[in-house]
């Protein structure tokens, strides 16, 4: 990755009409309904954007969408990138750097995750308060990282405290049940074994997934305030573990998604 590559990506998007967005949003697996709320959308498919990776997972459509929600300009990433698709950390987080250069001031992230905390249930929303990086790498571990910001990034508060408080207050006001907890990011794509679920619980994990942490690290590198929520799509009880059903996970994500959309729309109004 070079500054010139980022500049070419940004210039292409600006020519398409992606002008001065205020907010960037990353949509997770099965969480694509938010795009229906975008007014005056302009689309740019990943395979047309210079230097962009291509989304390979069948339920990620792979495009950036620019438009307005609640009167604010934003760019929405429909389809994200994962280690398990064969990308490296720089590829995964390249779109975050592009959105930042386009002008976003806040970043919202969503994902689908499994509930390790057995007090949490399928369909719950979890506000991520902290995370554990179990992906064996960093999106800042490349030779010329100092050209893009400080090499050593403080992660004492990776998730913006003010936006987290606002989302929690919105959930209470709107009658949306919301959990708060620690998200662990693993490589995947295989799901965890019983022993691995037990390990995650010992580590203090409340939910586990295969994304989000690289993007959050880069957001902190860019000093870009970020908030993230998980839609909990399965219950990971090692003592009563059943074979995974991917379609059921997608169905639960779709059913819970309106709650996430409500939280994001209300947060957009308030910032």
TrEMBL record:
The keyword Transit peptide does not apply. GO terms for molecular function: purine-nucleoside phosphorylase activity. Pfam families: PNP_UDP_1 (PF01048). It comes from the Bacteria. Its EC number is 2.4.2.1. Residues 23-269 form the Nucleoside phosphorylase domain. CDD domains: PNP-EcPNPII_like (cd09009). One of its GO terms (cellular component) is cytoplasm. Keywords: Glycosyltransferase, Transferase. Pathway: Purine metabolism; purine nucleoside salvage. GO terms for biological process: nucleoside metabolic process. The purine nucleoside phosphorylases catalyze the phosphorolytic breakdown of the N-glycosidic bond in the beta-(deoxy)ribonucleoside molecules, with the formation of the corresponding free purine bases and pentose-1-phosphate. Belongs to the PNP/MTAP phosphorylase family. This is Purine nucleoside phosphorylase.
């Amino acid at each position: 990755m070079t500054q010139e590559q980022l500049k070419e990506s940004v210039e292409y998007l600006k020519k398409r009409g992606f002008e001065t967005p205020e907010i960037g949003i990353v949509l997770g697996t099965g969480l694509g309904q938010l795009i229906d709320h975008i007014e005056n959308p302009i689309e740019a498919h990943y395979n047309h954007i210079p230097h962009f990776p291509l989304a390979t997972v069948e339920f990620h459509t792979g495009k950036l969408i620019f438009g307005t929600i609640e009167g604010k300009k934003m760019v929405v990433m429909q389809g994200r990138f994962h280690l398990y698709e064969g990308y490296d950390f720089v590829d995964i987080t390249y779109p975050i750097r592009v959105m930042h250069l386009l002008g976003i001031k806040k970043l919202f992230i969503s994902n689908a995750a499994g509930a390790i905390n057995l007090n949490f249930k399928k369909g719950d929303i979890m506000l991520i308060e902290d995370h554990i990086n179990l992906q064996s790498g960093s999106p800042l571990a490349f030779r010329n990282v100092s050209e893009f910001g400080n090499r050593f990034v403080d992660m004492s508060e990776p998730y913006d405290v003010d936006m987290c408080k606002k989302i929690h207050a919105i959930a209470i006001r709107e009658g949306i049940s919301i959990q708060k907890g620690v998200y662990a990011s693993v490589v995947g794509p295989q799901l965890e074994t019983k022993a691995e679920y037990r390990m995650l619980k010992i580590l203090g994990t409340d939910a586990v997934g295969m994304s989000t942490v690289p993007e959050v690290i880069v957001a902190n590198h860019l000093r870009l305030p970020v908030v993230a929520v998980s839609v909990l799509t399965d219950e990971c009880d090692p003592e009563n573990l059943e074979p995974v059903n991917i379609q059921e996970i997608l169905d639960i994500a779709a059913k819970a998604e309106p709650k996430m959309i409500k939280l994001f729309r209300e947060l957009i109004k308030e910032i």
